[in-house]
Amino acid sequence: MIRGLNWRLDVGVRRLPLGVAAALALGLSLSACGTPASQSTGPEPEPAETTEDAAPSSSAGGSAEPDPAASSSPSGSAAPSGSASSAASAAEAGVRPVAVNIASIDVEEPLIDLGIAEDGTMEVPEDFSEVGWFDGGGMPGGRGPTVLAGHRDSTTGPAVFHRLVEMQPGDEVEVTDAEGEVHIYRVERTEVFAKDDFPTREVFGALPEDELRLITCTGIFDVEAGSHEDNHIVFAVPVDADILR
Amino acid sequence: MMTTQRRRTIGAGATLGAAVLLLSPTMTQASTEAGTEVAWPEEFTSAYTVMATPDEVIDADGEVAPGEEGATGDFMFWINSEEEVICYEITLEGVTGGYESPALTATHIHEAAAGEPGPPRLAFPDPEPIGDEPRTSSGCLAGPFMTGVEGDDGADTGEGFSLAEIEANPAGFTGDSHTEEFTAGVVRGQLMQVPLDGIETGGGGMQQSSSQIGVFAGAGVLAVAGVSAFMLVRRNQAA
After folding, report:
1. Residue B76 in contact with partner chain A when CB distance is under 8 A
2. Closest-CA residue to B190 (of B58, B101, B97)
């Protein structure tokens, strides 16, 4: 009987390292989701290169000049030129956002610039603790949606936007622009979309008004694809607009 | 530019259109003068949005020629430059009256930077219905393209045009629509590239750590069970 007991304990002990090994292996294979889109090689892609690649193609809505340093610089250095529409006034173009503060989920972060990767998808922050804004889209105070994205989790645990799913209609989000003005948005709705049925027009499409979207991952993590199956998106409108509506 | 897998359908109209296409493929390859109407491709290489407004309208001389006050246009384009297919969803609001243009249709992508005039390269079916809100137009066109406008060289301004040219410099292209009252353009706006598909904002660590916890918990249960059994054995032996 004692021999039998030893065997059982052995099994228990043996399973533990196996499980840990499996989890570790899983972590390695999953890391692709956390790196910029479609780069499946490890955790150290080159920030400058991806930004440079993306900048020309996304220059229409943001700065006219590619800014290789912008990826790692929260405030960026390009002026909010609104070059896409020279006829539009500065007010219509808005001002580049530099920081976000979401008290309800305890997020207070500077923003990095995100462009479009070579495969046409959106770049994501390389650092799981950073929040980025899509620099080809709208800017606070201007027309069109300002889109911010942050990771839900890293390969080992929660990341900067892991509590985004807790946000509720009515919650407020403060976005500070490069001129120091704080734009307050109020959450209107939150939605979950499958990534392979992503509503590009609804999230990124042109708008006559100033709106805000916050994006992170949610849903089951598909091990083979190295990616969460869904995106959780928070749609918010300026508090001022609430009064008008 | 790499191709991204894409399985989405765009709007109910698109779904319906795709279903019809599946049912009767031979009837759907309708060739119009502007291009060939095709089904939504499975893949796209890039996507663009346009916020078209009256204040962006420029006449042929390069002068600001404001369109209809209060009108807006929301243009969305998806391009597969490898197959020369462009899909479009166009919505006009606050636009009154009928369309007018020397081209095949009055809704275009022109090769023109902001504030500059330029020739139409693509002509899309005009948003409808006239006289009701909103006016919409959606579908996909495959090249070779025609606009019906003769360029300085005597050739059609759409002839030989490749969608890769838009991908190379989206800001050098503008979307617009022309009406009887606003022949220079009722609304206009530059193309702005937007991302394809969903956003990869997660490394799976939360799911992984919960499964790790499960492994540890499982091991713990086994260990406790083992120790209990061991104690039981010891007790039995002592007895």
Report:
1. yes
2. B58
Cα separation, A151 vs A128, whole angstroms: 6
CA nearest to A177, candidates A202, A211, A140: A140
B59-94 exposure pattern, b = at least 16 Cβ within 10 A, e = fewer = eeeeeebebbeebbbbbbbbbbbebbbbbbbbbbbb
Distances (CA, A) of B95 to A108, B74, B103, B156: 43, 12, 19, 28
Which residues in chain B have their CB less than 8 angstroms from residue A152's CB? Answer: 201-202, 206
CA atoms within 13 A on the CB side of A96: 26
Q: Is residue A178's pLDDT more than 60?
A: yes
Would you place residue A91 in the very low, low, confident or very high pLDDT band (cuts 50, 70, 90)? low
Residues of A within 8 A of B55 (CB-CB) are 87-88
ipTM: 0.71
* Domain topology for A2-244: Sortase; Chain: A; (2.40.260)
Is a pLDDT exceeding 80 seen at residue B51?
yes
Phi, psi at B53, each rounded to 5°: -135, 160
Q: pLDDT tens digit string along B184-202?
A: 999 999 999 999 988 788 7
What backbone phi and psi angles, to 5 degrees, belong to B42? -75, -25
- Which chain A residues are closer than 8 Å to B56 by Cβ? 85, 87-88
Task: Determine contact: B63 vs chain A, CB below 8 A.
Answer: no
For residue B73, give the nearest of B190, B194, B169 by alpha carbon.
B190
Q: Where are the domains of chain B?
A: 4-194, 202-239
CA A132 to each of CA A164, A224, B212: distance values in angstroms, whole numbers, following the listed order: 14, 26, 30
Query: Other CB atoms closer than 10 Å to residue A174's CB: what's the count?
Result: 16
pTM: 0.70
The CATH number of the structural domain formed by B4-194 is 2.60.40
Q: Hey, are the CB atoms on B204 and A149 less than 8 Å from each other?
A: no
Residue A205 confidence (pLDDT): 93
Please judge whether A119 and B3 are an interchain contact, meaning their C-beta atoms are less than 8 angstroms apart.
yes
Q: Do A30 and B2 make contact, defined as CB atoms within 8 angstroms?
A: no
Sign of CA dihedral A191, B45, B13, B173: positive
Q: Is A151 a catalytic residue?
A: yes
Of A162, A183, A217, A232, which residue is the catalytic one?
A217
Instruction: Please tell me the distance from the alpha carbon of residue B43 to that of residue A119, in angstroms, as a whole number.
Output: 11
Identify the band that residue B31 occupies on the pLDDT scale cut at 50, 70 and 90.
low
- CB pair distance less than 8 Å for A120 and B170: no
Query: Look-up: residue for tokens 């042929």?
Result: B60
